[in-house]
Amino acid sequence: MQELKDFGKIEFVRNKRAKRVSVKIKSDGLKVSMPYHVNKSDVIDFLLSKKNEILRKQQKVQKKKLKLQIIPDNNIQTLTFSIKVIPTNRQDLFFSLRNQVLSIEVPQDADMLSDDVQEACWEGINHFLKKESKRVLTQRVFELAKQHNFKVLDVKIQSSKTRWGSCSQKRSINLSFYLMLLPMHLIDYVILHELCHTREMNHGTAFWKLMDQVTNNQSNALKKELKKYEIP
């Protein structure tokens, strides 16, 4: 069907555990997971009914991919290490973190722009982001908590791609290890945001007044700056 070609390559997968249709939007296509009782023709009709929305999301994915592509010429800097891609004679990927440089050795003939290679690279990078974030971000939470007289019971590092951080009713703070891709002042902003939630669980007037107190009245400017960044 000609209209489906606009989405790129579509992979349809039957899943015994699936209770509903789910669509993973990739830069070069779609991955559609569906229960066995669902007709493929109905799924295609659904995709076409959401065509404009899906194409808009694909464009966002493509822009994000260009910005955070793991390729030799793209210098990505995290809070504690830079990422360097090295083509070699290896048959697989190899990761090594030394002297604040994460080296990724890749086969010389690897298609670095393919989704599979990019996902494999990010899987390795995420391992080190999580390891470093546990070392750095956890300590930073308690430093800022002590500085501004907040009480924190626990800090957890997660792989969240939907939010930078969160705070539970029990004063447990959750942080995405992707925070390591932000500059330090924005990391502090996110941490302070969650620390303020240990006193004010909503985003009412009292919360933003507290945020201004701990950010020298810069909460609004920092909030706008953070919106320029996306979780990969």
Overview of this structure, please?
The chain is of the alpha/beta class and 232 residues long. It is built from 6 helices and 10 strands. The protein has helices spanning 40-49, 51-67, 115-147, 184-196, 205-214, 219-226; strands at 9-14, 22-26, 29-34, 76-77, 82-88, 94-98, 101-107, 154-158, 165-167, 172-176. A hairpin with a 4-residue loop joins strand 4 and strand 5. Helix 3 (115-147) packs across helix 4.
Key traits:
232 residues, four-stranded mixed beta sheet, three-stranded mixed beta sheet, 6 helices, 39% helix
Mean pLDDT: 91
Which parts are unreliable, with pLDDT below 50 for 5 consecutive residues or more? none
What would you call the structural class? alpha/beta
- In what range is the share of β-strand residues? 15-25%
CATH architecture of the largest domain: 2-Layer Sandwich
* Largest β sheet strand count, sense and barrel closure: 4 strands, mixed
Shape type: globular
Query: What oligomeric state best describes the polypeptide chains here?
Result: single chain
Q: Fill in the CATH topology of the largest domain.
A: Zincin-like
Please identify which CATH superfamily of the largest domain we are dealing with: Metalloproteases ("zincins"), catalytic domain
Main CATH class of the largest domain: Alpha Beta
Number of helices: 6
- Alpha carbon gyration radius: 21 Å
Question: How do the SSEs run, as a string of H and E?
Answer: EEEHHEEEEHEEEHHH
Q: Terminal Cα separation, in Å? A: 31 Å
Number of strands: 10
Biggest sheet: strand arrangement:
4-5-7-6
Share of residues in helices:
25-40%
Structural domains: how many = 3
